[in-house]
UniProtKB/TrEMBL annotation, chains A, C:
InterPro entries: DhaM, DhaM_N, PTS_EIIA_man-typ, PTS_EIIA_man-typ_sf. GO terms for biological process: glycerol catabolic process; phosphoenolpyruvate-dependent sugar phosphotransferase system. This is phosphoenolpyruvate--glycerone phosphotransferase. PANTHER family: PEP-DEPENDENT DIHYDROXYACETONE KINASE, PHOSPHORYL DONOR SUBUNIT DHAM. It comes from Lactobacillus melliventris. It catalyses: dihydroxyacetone + phosphoenolpyruvate = dihydroxyacetone phosphate + pyruvate.
UniProtKB/TrEMBL annotation, chains B, D:
PANTHER family: TRIOKINASE/FMN CYCLASE (PTHR28629), TRIOKINASE_FMN CYCLASE (PTHR28629:SF4). One of its GO terms (molecular function) is kinase activity. Gene3D superfamilies: 1.25.40.340. The lineage of its organism: Bacteria, Bacillati, Bacillota, Bacilli, Lactobacillales. This is Dihydroxyacetone kinase subunit L. It comes from Lactobacillus melliventris. Pfam families: Dak2. SMART domains: Dak2 (SM01120). The keyword Signal does not apply. It comes from the Bacteria.
Length: 123, 194, 123, 194
């Protein structure tokens, strides 16, 4: 069972940049992104999220997002995909960085989730 | 006469027209306590919905499903998945009921589940919570709609972008409540649907 | 006394993207950025941070960063500038978004800091 | 004979040579528990330092200041502000003392203040903490340097990128400790400086 990461932001550049940052410490982790609306404006897109889920090479995906409205599209997409998605209400960049580091090190999901706990936020 | 594919389309086209007419106003409301795009988001969404419905769907369920998916794909802001979920729930409910009150009640449950907002949080949930019972008891009026929208003004936002402002969100009508008001107005104006 | 924001990230795209996101809700707030090393590689640059401080139109600057090593360059730059800098160990994107919203609304620093508290992280 | 501009330059050129020779090794150490760039960061920084020092600074203080500012501007990673702060503190201290032990003690205080790390946190602080007293008491040896570096292997990282790995950071030498080891080796090899 492999773990991957999907990053969702209101801004395309934020997720491409973050994906680069994570790639440095997690070369073997599948990281896919969904940034901006379908028209690449500021906002999020359930279609892009679904695509990021399906492009991800892992069986189970840890999903991270920037602001609250992204979460709603993430949840909609989660209901529409057959993949197992874990959604975290944690600091976006810091949480995704932590998860990427730990997945790369072969750490198991329950332990990763333990490490994400201190990064939890009301979002 | 109740719900028909035709009056659902009429309802949506009327809603779309109201959004179009007030898109700057809705975005201005959103500028005060959000990111200033709500009118443009809804306009993009409802223009696409009207376009979609120009090919008449076969059933009411299909119609609601198409409305939902179109809003989800085009709105871009929080209101996209929220209105989208509302119409998805109406689509589901429409397979066992053709009562508009029942459908709207299912929609409200969906909106609350999707966004996690409760009445009083200064979101569209407030307007829906006030008006769905009025639809059910056949007592919806223009005045009740206006006062439900207006009532969001003095609330402190607990959900959505406005919640970052805390106390400072007071004194402004919630944009999503205003657009929801137009949805109910359009419903009220649609001959034979209530 | 005006308040501005400086954003520091290891990746240039992250801060340009974030600056766009904040600009939407804080049109009147001076937001300056420092992303990447002097050679635009992944990392941070004290020189870029100093420049972001000096380009900022505000008298007092609230500074936000992504990962720990950025903080060290931020502190070095803080010691070398004459501007008043406030540095926050909070969730990067969520904290900067909160601050931008509140500065735009004319909220005072102490109240802003109160709202940033729940976003604090060990970074 | 103690510190002179000439032997500081010699020290730095020797350090730079060791970094150059081991940059892949340092980056490999960093790949295991960080982002894999420590050797490349330090190589970029020390190449620039050697370049800078090819024009001989007037005083020891100037030399340390130039080393510091060059590292701060070119390294890019956490090690930039850390080594930069170390040499800045040495520059400051060198205006009142020319004892290398005193200077290195000031540097260590600066590193700890800059990064907030304490001994045992699996950072360069561990190597500096072990070796500065040896310099002060004139007992620095190659063996002590090697064992101080090696001692970071079994620690759990509490600071820097490796700290994200928690327990998993055990079993790998800390890259910044390894490069600090080279700094002390270069010092040991510089005729007349100790
Ligand atoms: N969590 C939520 N629950 C219910 N309604 C919400 C929630 N978040 C936002 N809204 C509604 O959405 C409206 C904002 O929509 P819009 O401006 O299109 O989205 P965004 O805030 O993403 O730009 C708000 O005025 C509010 O009525
Ligand atoms: N907070 C800190 N305090 C002391 N040393 C630190 C700290 N953070 C990192 N380091 C040191 O820096 C080294 C990593 O340097 P480098 O790879 O150049 O930076 P980065 O981690 O930003 O890529 C670590 O091996 C450690 O010795
Ligand atoms: Mg909006
Ligand atoms: Mg928006
Ligand atoms: Mg590194
Ligand atoms: Mg690095």
């Amino acid at each position: 069972m492999s773990l991957g990461i999907t990053l969702v932001s209101h801004v395309p550049e934020i997720v491409t940049g973050l994906s680069e940052l994570l790639g440095q410490v997690a070369k073997d982790v599948s990281i896919t992104t969904a940034g901006g609306t379908n028209a690449d404006d500021l906002g999020t897109s359930m279609d892009k999220i679904l695509q990021a889920f399906s492009e991800n090479k892992a069986d189970e995906i840890l999903a991270f997002y920037d602001l609250g409205s992204a979460k709603m599209n993430l949840e909609l997409a989660t209901e529409m995909t057959s993949k197992k998605i874990h959604l975290y209400d944690v600091a976006f960049i810091e949480g995704a960085y932590t998860a990427a580091t730990l997945i790369e090190a072969g750490v198991e999901l329950t332990e990763i989730e333990g490490q994400l706990k201190p990064l939890a936020l009301k979002k | 006469m109740g719900l028909t594919v035709k009056n659902v389309i009429e309802w949506m086209n009327n809603f779309s027209a109201k959004i179009e007419q007030n898109k700057q106003f809705l975005s201005d409301l959103d500028t005060a306590i959000g990111d200033g795009d709500h009118g443009f988001n809804m306009s993009r969404g409802m223009t696409a919905v009207s376009q979609k419905l120009s090919t008449e769907p076969k059933t009411i369920t299909d119609a609601f499903k198409q409305i939902a998916m179109t809003l989800i794909s085009t709105v871009g802001g929080a209101s996209g998945p929220l209105y989208g979920t509302a119409f998805l729930e109406m689509a589901k409910k429409s397979s066992t009921s053709s009562d508009i009150g029942d459908l709207l009640a299912a929609a409200l449950t969906g909106i609350k589940k999707r966004g996690g907002a409760e009445p009083g949080d200064k979101t569209m949930v407030d307007v829906w919570t006030a008006l769905v019972p009025e639809v059910k008891t056949n007592k919806l009026t223009q005045e009740k709609i206006a006062s439900a929208v207006e009532a969001t003004k003095d609330l402190v936002a607990k959900k959505g972008r406005a919640s970052y402002l805390g106390e400072r969100s007071k004194g402004h009508v919630d944009p999503g409540s205003q657009s929801s008001g137009y949805l109910f107005e359009a419903l009220l104006e649609t001959e034979g649907i209530l």
